[in-house]
């Protein structure tokens, strides 16, 4: 069997088109778990950025996969520290990064957001959230310049990491640009959980105006400009869904979906594909996924029953996931392999299935690595079409 | 010294500090990324 880089890429594209590739593709979702696996720390990467390469390569020496979902540590503690924000910090274990919700926006400020979204977010909100950005010029310039220097180095390191993954492990990185839903921008960076929950009930029209105002910025983040006529079918665009699991289908349809659906259709129109991390439970919102163009979306299931999902949305979108983390942590090797076999037998026929864990791996204790090695090897060797 | 808003600071960064990038398209892409990382951090 061939396991070169392009064969692995083809495995993903073929299965997303609901055709059967040579074998079921396996996706690795190694977040900060890679740091503990490499017996290292976040601080080590902060002091010596090139260590990120060794750390994020380490698991691939033992654990087989056909692609990795991202490349290195995306949201680090140091970026927040540089601008004087508390939004991300290193946990006590020294190996994971936590996000602290910050709510710089008040409920009565939607008019300002709607009128001038960029000016409001960057000139008004950010100084409230990050101490160094609240300082007058040139101190605010120095803070951004420091962040730029940090990411100049980090971007170069992550480019080297992607190259090493390709050369040493023949491993593609599945995600390219992010498609960030406008409502999640408000949820994640402006109003937080409590704020947006209140706004949905007390200020729905202002909230909707704010979401619509951020449509342009959300599109800018995708990197799709008006003159573009095509985008590559690989790597995929990616969305981590944050708010949807906390709102009902009616709210989702009115507030979240319209601007996000437009983004998705634009990607589809240009020939791209997208992987969506369907965080939480999504069954009540399956109709939205079934109304999207066929063979375009990969949905990573977290809490949904994948066997039911296969029946209900599996003809339209590709499913990824299904291997429960709790089983990988507490089960025996045989129990894990038996479950992987059941997943393959049920979900793989006809294509449209990617084998992976039910969640991204973050902490040392998330699973028993011997079980992960066993199921990935089983699928790699036996899930042949 | 005149004060500058953060968006004006980003403009100054784009003007002065992106010589390590090969062309305007790369500079524009990096600025989108840098603004986002700032917002997300």
**Annotation, overall tally of beta strands of chain A:** 10
Q: What sequence of helices (H) and strands (E) makes up the elements of chain B?
A: HH
Strand content of chain A: 5-15%
Query: Structural class, judged by helices and strands of chain B?
Result: mainly alpha
Main sheet properties of chain A: 6 strands, parallel
Shape of chain B: flat
Rg of chain A computed from alpha carbons, rounded to a whole number of angstroms: 21 Å
Strand order of the largest sheet of chain A: 5-6-7-8-9-10
State the share of residues found in helices of chain A, binned by percent. Answer: 40-55%
Number of strands of chain B: 0
Count of runs of 4 or more consecutive helical residues of chain A: 17
What composes the largest sheet of chain B?
none
Helix content of chain B: 55-70%
Mean pLDDT of chain A: 97
Radius of gyration of chain B: 11 Å
Average pLDDT number of chain B: 94
**Weakly predicted, low-confidence segments of chain A:** none
Descriptive report:
The complex is a heterodimer of chains A (385) and B (41). Chain A has 385 residues and is α/β, with parallel strands linked by helices. In chain A, helix 9 packs antiparallel against helix 10 and helix 16 runs parallel beside helix 17. Chain A is built from 17 helices and ten strands. Chain A has a six-stranded parallel sheet, sandwiched between helices. A two-stranded parallel sheet of chain A has the order 1-2. In chain A, strands 3-4 form a two-stranded antiparallel ribbon. The longest helix of chain A is centred in the middle third of the chain and has 31 residues. Chain B has 41 residues and is an all-alpha fold. The longest helix of chain B has 17 residues.
